[in-house]
Write a structure and sequence with these properties.
heteropentamer, A: mainly alpha, MetI-like fold, about 65% helix, D: alpha+beta, about 25% helix, binds adenosine-5'-triphosphate, binds magnesium ion, MetI-like_sf (chain A), transport (chain A)
């Protein structure tokens, strides 16, 4: 028997409470602007400020090659004569070094811009690697359950034993010992990204796994199973979209953490070379000049790092609250 | 299909869950393996166009039966046949696949049964696409619109997300989805217990209208006896995984035979008896892992005797009760 | 009727949200007398729980009382300072929530929670409080209370837990108990046990009860009077018999018709079309008018005030609810309303049709 | 008690005086151990355990040992101990094998007289005796420490953790990497200038923390004070910077050995084999600016691989002036008009501002088109890479102090041809600069007893190195000790802190 | 309970074995350890002899077995840098790290919980907002920079607190403690704050979030409805329930405090295991690295077990291990 609606002449629809304003189809962005998320965002001045700072710093970082007065990675552009100049407004300040120079005559402003870019790239790549790894493993663990789940989660336990810096230190130390001087800057970046990826995936995996286990039991998944969809299809089409919220929050916080981790690695001497400084390298270098009165070498990179991390953290915080239905 | 061949046949259906502690605990505490007989030898049949209702207290195994009937849960024993096709026999896998489209389920919580990230249109269209019933986006959209109208919504609602609807409207969407796949057999596991009485009335009426129009067959599960009375042509009463009484809707409510059925009916507060205090039956449903021997109802039964405490009564003539068999039932 | 234990006058509660101030309760008035059980029914979101919370002074922020007054035994309590209000709670007003599992702190033994409550409100010693706790548990029908008192909540079944919650609410012998859907989470058989218990205890202790529920059956069985709420107002209030058998407000009529009963056969249920408005979009005039089959011009503009329906007409200016147990807020019953469609007689003026889905 | 607290960036790695040739460690050993011949405050040879010595024949040195000297364990010091120590210091595993001539034979004359018999005359045979400390034979035998800690030892050497010398201080506590405590030895044979009862040594690796510790008065002595922090220390009021020329010369070396440069854009040949390229590198580096900016004026630009104070005629050498244009021209001439790329190895925690110097070099070379990939590493990894046996480097920076305080050491160790590795020369000639003439001169210098002729031969050698642009000397870095104003002590150019010259106002 | 302990013990052994295997396989990847052991001028033959005597020529699994056997006997090998048994080195350094981690944790827990509770109970006050903002700054600057700034302020400028080391320690058996001397206690302050700051922020935020959730639960509403005093509701009921999830996270954090101490120890020249580890990494001193990783894993596993036990003490629901909990 089949229900052919075409022939079934239907009664006028039952009244359904508040009249439904016919909604015009809208783009994803327009929908975002109309959403609760956006409304809550507009209410939070802090979140708006944080977003402004984040966007500004991202913009500055990724346009560094065009706006920086100097390419701090090109040794030919560094003049030793110009070393240790204070910022422009100080007594001995010299144009064009607005924020002064470091001990190699590197323009601090340019170095901060390029360093920001490098730190962000490492952070973003690190988050991408750990996120992909974590989500994939979390899905698999939550979906297959049983022995697969047990193995993944025990690995996660082992992993949790080692905080990011330990893993990064070990990976870095071993890689350097294995490859020696053959590691160029790009390889070092890759190494740091891999270390960060390897140490941050657990959080994603755990979150995704527990979400998958919750979602798997929900009736809409049962309904999909009833239709006969295969489990992988259900996982990807139904479950995955429902676990993106927490993943996004973790990603934000982890971006901030990854940038800090890179800086910390720098301090421990396993980060990027001084000739190609990230924010962390700049701070480590500048550290040496903290007592000598050449404060600008550490202060500006430090401020840039703190500002960036703070802004991203605030965004992540707000996002966490905004996405938590219980807090709305 | 002749009246002799019921639409759904359930035979000796059993489902056992292993609720043992982990192996190591059992070894140390010398505890035996523990099982929970959620469903134990349930048999009934549903004729085409009929509404068969299952009632019983929480934990009596109603949902487990429903999930086995639609094939979401493999039975530990017994068989479910729908239009003669076994839901378990591997030889009938191909036939079963075709059957799939005709069996659908409506869940208790309409919100949980819809993917919150999907638009209503996609939700309703999902079975159509999955079973490849209609080709072409425009045709699918038209069909979804028609389905939404069928359940009393507006075709434009297809563009919204589930959260934009009230509980009753969501349950309508769930029904529209169930109907999308040319379903003729709907299993409703407490489809209205999450809803207000007034909305419940809307949904119950809708379900009956659809049944009248489309000739649907329902397996209807509820713990609300009044709702069951309203909906069912036949009723099965479950207690601790067993069917204790089966009968026509009127019969059961007017002339209940099993003491448990009587107790349940007595416990229902009724508008007709304002201010009357009910005679509550003592006790609660026992732990299903460790059910009492004999008739599982015996600890709460006013008619229990030694036989009830040792011998499990068979379902005969629509009731599984020694007292009924022995004619000890008070009028 | 003697001086009521609880007297609520023109109570107004609003939630300050980012979408503005939402009036969840808008002018609710009622009384509960000593030993009386007032049932409060209505659709989800009608404001039943908010009314209860307002009375006990536990509105969740951002909700707050924006008007009206609440008197307990003649004393005004909605304006009490927090510390004095705290002493009213538990001591003079007890509360029972819907879900007995989540009402009890999972980390403390049942006995600890009862003793804590008793000792907060009385001067009893720890020993005496414990003895009293055991008595209480025995009173609510917990077998072997001296053993179970040291159990944790998760070791009790649902019905047992709800008994513990009742024991807790009764611990300090309050004058009033607010029971917010005390049986919704329970099975019918257990529900009957709990309701019977509650009724017995209240009669014995002379406690007044405000019984909030969805279930008309429970109200019919337990309550003396019933208030039907709709969209933050009381649509109709009166003795159970009258409201159930002879509802006047069109909403009450619809509600009664929508309830399937055991005795009634399998005919169609009456149904009220549509759904209750959200707080953000409460229609002007009578909030029920978009769904009302008897709507007429004035309903769309004027908000109906409660009209006394039992005794003398209330137009004399006396407070309708204070001395009168019955009232209905509908223009149909306003003798002044000239354009109303049908007079209010003995028959219900409105009827909802169980119309079948039409097939064109 | 009068406690002197001091901190160094590195550690006293082992208490075995033959295990590591490193200035600070040697200086610390010198508080507990003593040598036959020591060096005084002006680095002149002075008697210590040998009261006097003479050379009855050119190949025989006779040492008259001090009497009534006791080891810290209470046993007496005798000729046996000297003979034992001479054998131990030249045994496998010792880092000081070259301090005592390998052909020398030690002969006991009596309990307090020892002869050293050489195969051929050697005027500087005892120049390195000051860092050859005498150990107790009975103690070593009792504790199984007769051999210097062997590399493969599965259990730790007793001598690495315990000390038994004759010196004025006893080491009462030694936690490797953490702290070491020295206490006055009551049974010391002589008078000690120091009024310190106890000296506590701590490693503080982090420069900022080290300076902070000095400024806050928690330590009385630190080394080094980072150049940039010196003004701050000076102005603090409770400490001063003791700066002085150091004997160490910092220089750049180039791989002139491999046929193809490692990690370079040039394939199939080695540009450094062409003297014009080496000259171009030399001329492209503006050492004056490095000394002024990177070293903040605390370095002496040097034309030689040896400190001026160690070679009389050093004044005759001049650094060729910085000339980037000429450098560029030379490169073009050599066939690299667009320059080339290569990797430079550099330590980052060994010499004063070592990494910064390398960075400056990198940017100066960039200006003549040479792209340098800088590989700066901690010293442990750096030396493991660039030293024997791999000599895995194309271009590197090292600093060198001739342990004999003599130019021969430079001609032999730094400029000697490595050959097939068996010559013994060129242990630190990492790029294998090789000139047969220099080798010949080095041999001549070794046996030359006439100091004038010797100086001329040395000059010839240095001229050759400079003429062939074999190395690029940079500068002598300055010593920079941070010293509390309460403390008086002696700073020798060899950068060794000698505890027995330390006094502190209680 | 016994079963639970046994299972956890078994899992711990598995975790440790995996860590051991990882640690061990680093020997393979880090290149020839002999190069790290001998000096530059060691002849090839001698190197081969060392390699043979260390058993490096055996198959990997044989080596792992031997390593595991040695570790079980408490023998972690000899440090390349110090030429001393790793076990002795770590034992000597362990008290310093554990005391530092203990103080940092106590600091993080007390301050974090206090501030978190305050922020949850008075979420709209200026002070609560200030706490939250300041705590974020704490995680926005790298630990080492914070440490150096603290030194700059409290040691150099104000001269109140020491800038490095442990001060005077007292030896109790093999344990050295800084708790018994004034200088030792003073020396603990700055490193503890530096190390604990990050965890403190985490705990504060966690407590705040959890407490806000708990305050919304029915049993808190019911507790209020019972007329309990605000104090009893907040601290007797809300805080206790908040602590259940906090314990897990705090436990995990405790493990990372020990690992994080490597930075703090570097900045403050704190003579603990972390400092040793950093030096080991820089010098590719694999025996130390491997043993340190094993030790951290063991500590972590122990803490986890302790946390789980504590859990059951706090939450009676977990004491029942039967399947019939509702
Ligand atoms: N997956 C499972 N594992 C273990 N036990 C289960 C499982 N599913 C159901 N049970 C048990 O089987 C019994 C029957 O459960 P079922 O859900 O069928 O009852 P129900 O009659 O639908 O109750 P309710 O009215 O509460 O929905 C219960 O005791 C339940 O605890
Ligand atoms: N914290 C809150 N913030 C905003 N609105 C609220 C809040 N609590 C309740 N409301 C609103 O107040 C109205 C009345 O709610 P209330 O909980 O009293 O309904 P109810 O009649 O008890 O319903 P139910 O039967 O579902 O318990 C609802 O519209 C609800 O959305
Ligand atoms: Mg069910
Ligand atoms: Mg409610």
């Amino acid at each position: 028997m089949s229900t052919s609606v075409d022939e079934a002449a239907l009664a006028p629809p039952l009244p359904t409470g508040a009249p439904l304003a016919p909604e015009a189809p809208r783009s994803g962005f327009a929908r975002f602007l109309g959403s609760d998320l956006w409304a809550s965002f507009q209410r939070s001045k802090l979140a708006m400020g944080a977003l402004a700072v984040t966007v500004l710093l991202f913009g500055l970082a990724f346009s560094a090659p065009w706006i920086a007065p100097q390419n701090p990675y090109d040794p030919a552009q560094l003049e030793l004569i110009n070393s240790n100049l204070p910022p422009l407004w100080a007594a001995d300040g010299q144009a064009p070094f607005v924020l002064g120079t470091d001990d190699q005559g590197r323009d601090v402003l340019s170095a901060v811009l390029y360093g920001l870019r490098l730190s962000l790239i490492i952070g973003l790549l690190g988050v991408a690697v750990s996120g992909t790894l974590g989500i994939a493993l979390g899905l698999v663990a939550g979906y297959f359950g049983g022995i697969v789940d047990a193995v993944v989660m025990r690995v996660a336990d082992v992993q949790l034993t080692f905080p990011a810096i330990l893993i990064a230190l070990v990976v870095d130390g071993v890689a350097k010992a294995a490859f020696g001087g053959a590691l160029d800057t790009n390889a070092t970046i890759l190494l740091i990204v891999v270390s960060i990826g390897l140490s941050f995936w657990v959080q994603y995996a755990r979150t995704v796994r527990s979400s998958v286990m919750v979602e798997r039991g929900k009736d809409y998944v049962q309904a999909a199973r009833l239709i006969g969809l295969s489990s992988p299809v259900i996982m990807v089409r139904h479950v995955l979209p429902n676990v993106t919220g927490p993943v996004f929050v973790i990603a934000t916080i982890n971006l901030a953490l990854a940038i800090i981790t890179e800086a910390t690695l720098s301090f421990l001497g396993t980060g990027l070379p001084e000739t190609m400084p990230s924010l962390g390298t700049l701070i480590r270098t500048g550290n040496r000049f903290l007592f000598s009165g050449e404060w600008w070498i550490v202060a500006f990179p430090g401020a840039a790092l703190a500002g960036l991390v703070l802004a991203i953290n605030l965004l992540g915080d707000w996002l966490r609250d905004a996405l938590n239905p219980k807090l709305q | 299909m002749s009246a002799a061949a019921p639409y759904v046949e359930v035979d000796g259906l059993r489902r056992v869950f292993d609720v043992s502690k982990p192996w190591l605990n059992r070894m140390i505490e010398r505890a035996p393996r523990q099982t929970l007989k959620a469903v134990d030898g349930v048999a009934f049949s549903i004729a085409r166009g009929e509404t068969f209702a299952l009632v019983g207290e929480s934990g009596s195994g109603k949902s487990t039966v429903a999930r086995m009937v639609v094939g979401l849960l493999p039975p530990s024993g017994g068989e479910v046949r729908i239009t003669g096709i076994s839901m378990t026999d591997p030889r009938q896998a191909a036939a079963r696949r075709r059957l799939r489209a005709r069996i659908q389920m409506i869940f208790q919580d309409p919100y949980a049964s819809m993917n919150p990230r999907w638009r209503v249109g996609a939700i309703v269209a999902e079975p159509i696409r999955a079973f490849d019933l209609i080709q072409g986006e425009a045709a699918i959209r038209a069909r979804v619109g028609a389905l939404l109208e069928l359940v009393g919504l507006h075709p434009d609602d297809a563009r919204k997300y589930p959260h934009a609807f009230s509980g009753g409207q969501r349950q309508r969407i769930a029904i529209a989805r169930a109907l999308a796949s040319e379903a003729e057999f709907l299993v409703g596991d407490e489809p209205t217990s999450a809803l207000d009485v007034s909305v419940q009335a809307q949904i119950l009426n809708l379900m009956r209208d659809l049944q009248d129009r489309l000739g649907l067959t329902y397996l209807f599960i509820s713990h609300n006896l009044a709702v069951v009375r309203h909906m069912a042509t036949r009723v099965g009463v479950m207690y601790l995984g067993r069917l204790v009484e089966v009968g026509g809707g009127r019969e059961i409510f007017v002339q209940p035979r099993h003491p448990y059925t009587r107790m349940l009916l007595d416990a229902v507060p009724d508008l007709a008896h304002i201010g009357r205090s009910r005679v509550p039956v003592a006790g609660e449903i026992p732990n299903p892992i460790d059910p009492p021997p004999g008739c599982t109802f015996n600890p709460r039964c006013p008619l229990a005797n030694a036989r009830c405490r040792s011998e499990v009564p068979e379902l005969r003539n629509g009731v599984a009760c020694h007292a009924a068999e022995e004619g000890r039932l008070p009028a | 009727m003697s001086e009521p234990i609880l007297s609520v006058r023109d109570l107004r509660v609003a939630f300050e949200t980012r979408r503005g101030s939402l009036p969840a309760i808008d002018g609710v008035s009622f009384d509960i007398g000593r030993g009386e059980i007032l049932g409060v029914v209505g659709e989800s979101g009608a404001g039943k729980s908010v009314t209860g919370s307002a009375v006990i002074g536990l509105l969740d922020p951002p909700g707050r009382i924006v008007g009206g007054e609440i008197r307990l035994g003649g004393e005004r309590i909605d304006t009490l300072p927090p510390e004095r209000m705290r002493r009213v709670r538990g001591r003079r007003i007890g509360m029972i929530f819907q879900d007995p599992l989540t009402s009890l702190d999972p980390l403390y033994r049942v006995g600890e929670q009862i003793v804590e409550t008793i000792r907060t409100h009385t001067d009893l010693s720890a020993r005496a409080a414990r003895t009293r706790a055991i008595d209480l548990l025995a009173e609510v029908g917990i077998p072997a209370p001296e053993r179970r008192i040291d159990g944790y909540p998760h070791e009790f079944s649902g019905g047992m837990r709800q008994r513990v919650v009742i024991a807790l609410a009764l611990a300090a012998e309050p004058e009033l108990i607010i029971a917010d859907e005390p049986t919704t989470a329970l099975d019918v058989s257990v529900q009957a046990q709990v309701i019977t218990l509650l009724k017995r205890l209240c009669r014995e202790h002379g406690t007044a009860v405000m019984l909030v529920t969805h279930d008309m059956g429970v109200i019919a069985e337990a309550a003396d009077r019933v208030a039907v709420m709709y969209s933050g107002r009381i649509a109709e209030i009166g003795p159970v018999e009258a409201v159930v058998r002879n509802p006047r407000h069109p909403y009450a009529v619809g509600l009664m018709g929508a309830i399937p009963t055991l005795t009634q056969g399998s005919g169609r249920l009456a149904q009220i079309p549509g759904a209750m408005p959200r707080l953000t979009a409460i229609p002007p005039g009578c909030a029920f008018h978009p769904r009302c089959p008897k709507v007429f011009g004035r309903c769309r503009v004027d908000r109906p005030e409660p009209i006394r329906t039992d005794a003398a007409p209330a137009r004399t200016g006396s407070d309708p609810a204070s001395s009168s147990p019955s009232a209905v807020a509908c223009h149909l019953y306003d003798p002044d309303a000239a354009d109303r469609p049908a007079p209010a007689g003995g028959e219900p003026p409105v009827a909802f049709h169980a119309e079948p889905l039409q097939v064109r | 008690a009068n406690v002197f607290r001091f901190a160094f960036q590195g550690d006293i790695k082992s208490l075995d005086p033959y295990s590591l040739k490193e200035s600070f460690t040697i200086g610390m050993h010198g508080a507990a151990y003593e040598s036959l011949v020591t060096r005084d405050k002006d680095l002149n040879l002075a008697p210590q355990l040998a009261e006097s010595w003479e050379t009855p024949e050119p190949t025989r040195w006779r040492f008259h040992l001090r009497k009534n000297v006791k080891f810290h364990d209470g046993t007496d010091f005798t000729a046996d101990d000297v003979i034992f120590s001479a054998a131990r210091v030249r045994a496998a595993g010792s880092n000081f094998q070259t301090n005592v001539p390998s052909d020398a034979e030690f002969v006991k004359v009596d309990d307090h007289t020892v002869d050293m018999v050489l195969k051929k005359p050697n005027p500087i045979a005892i120049f390195q005796f000051s860092t050859w400390y005498i150990m107790s034979r009975s103690w070593a035998e009792k504790n199984g420490a007769t051999a210097p800690s062997p590399a493969s030892a599965a259990s730790p050497s007793y001598a690495a953790l315990h000390e038994n010398g004759t010196g004025p201080f006893v080491i009462t506590e030694h936690q490797p990497g953490v702290r070491t405590v020295f206490k006055k030895f009551p049974g010391y044979w002589g008078n000690v200038e120091s009024n310190v009862d106890e000296a506590v040594f701590t490693t503080i690796g982090n420069a900022a923390t080290r300076v902070a510790a000095l400024l806050s008065g928690e330590v009385d002595w630190i080394d080094p004070v980072p150049l940039q922090d010196q003004p701050r220390v000076e102005s603090s009021g409770n400490a001063v910077v003791m700066a002085g020329p150091e004997l160490r010369t910092v220089f750049l070396g180039m791989d002139q050995w491999r046929d193809e440069l490692k990690d370079s854009s040039v394939k199939g040949k080695n540009p450094f084999k062409d003297p014009r390229v080496r000259q171009a590198f030399y001329l492209a580096i503006d050492e004056d600016t490095i000394a002024k900016r990177v070293m903040r004026g605390q370095a002496t630009p040097s034309a030689l691989l040896i400190a001026p104070s160690l070679y009389a005629r050093s004044g005759e050498f001049k650094r060729p002036a910085y000339d980037a244009k000429k450098a560029k021209a030379l490169l073009t001439e050599a066939g690299y008009p667009d320059g080339f790329s290569l990797t430079m190895d550099c330590p980052n925690d060994r010499y004063v501002n070592d990494e910064a110097i390398c960075q400056a070099v990198v940017s100066m070379l960039a200006r003549i088109g040479v792209k340098v990939n800088l590989n700066a590493q901690p010293k442990a990894k750096y030396f493991a890479k660039v030293l024997a046996p791999a000599y895995d480097t194309s271009f590197y920076l090292v600093g060198w102090t001739p342990s004999s305080q003599d130019s021969h050491n430079i001609l032999y160790e730094i400029a000697g041809c490595r050959g097939d590795g068996k010559s013994g020369r060129g242990g630190w000639n990492l790029g294998n600069y090789c000139s047969p003439k220099v080798d010949a001169l080095a041999d001549q210098v070794e046996g030359e007893t006439d100091s004038k002729a010797r100086d001329a031969e040395i000059k010839d050698g240095f001229d050759t190195i400079q003429g062939e642009w074999g190395y690029i000397p940079l500068h002598q870095q300055a010593l920079a000790w941070g010293v509390s104003k309460k403390v008086t002590l002696v700073q020798r150019p060899d950068n060794m802190l000698m505890l027995y010259w330390v006094s502190k106002q209680p | 309970m016994l079963a639970f302990l046994l299972r956890r013990a078994f899992q711990s052994v598995v975790v440790l074995a995996v860590v051991g295997l990882i640690a061990f396989s680093m020997f393979r990847f880090a290149g020839d350890p002999v190069n790290q052991i001998v000096g530059p001028d060691t002849p090839v033959a001698e190197r081969a002899e060392i390699r043979r005597s260390l058993g490096l020529d055996d198959p990997t699994l044989v080596q792992f077995g031997r390593y595991a056997g040695n570790v079980l006997r408490g023998d972690f090998g000899i440090s390349y840098q110090f030429r001393q048994p790793v076990a002795a080195l770590l034992a000597e350094r362990m008290p310093a790290t554990l005391e530092l981690a203990f103080c940092a944790t106590v600091f993080a827990l007390t301050v974090g919980i206090l501030m978190g509770v305050y922020c949850a109970l008075r979420r709209d006050t200026v002070l609560a907002k200030l706490f939250q903002a300041v705590s974020l700054v704490g995680v926005s600057l790298p630990t080492f920079l914070i440490g150096i700034l603290l030194i700059f302020l409290f040691s150099v400028t104000l001269g109140w607190l020491p800038s490095y080391g442990r001060g005077d320690t007292v030896r109790l058996g093999w344990w050295t403690t800084g708790f018994l001397t004034l200088t030792g206690l003073k020396a603990l302050i700055l490193p503890s704050i530096t190390l604990g700051l990050f965890q403190m922020t985490l705990i504060m935020r966690l407590v705040r979030a959890e407490m806000l959730e708990v305050l919304r639960t029915d049993y808190i509403r019911f507790a209020r409805a019972r007329g309990l005093t605000t104090h009893a509701v907040h601290f007797g009921h809300a805080l206790k329930n908040t602590l259940v999830p906090v314990i897990t996270i705090a436990g995990l954090q405790l493990g990372s405090v020990i690992a994080f101490s490597i930075i703090t120890e570097t900045v403050f020249q704190w003579p603990g295991m972390g400092l040793l580890f950093v030096q080991a990494v820089q010098n590719v001193d694999i025996p130390i690295m491997a043993a340190y990783l094993l030790l951290v894993a063991a500590i972590f596993v122990t803490i986890n077990l302790a946390v789980d036990l504590l859990y059951t003490v706090v939450d009676p629901r977990l004491r029942l291990s039967t399947g019939r909990t509702a």
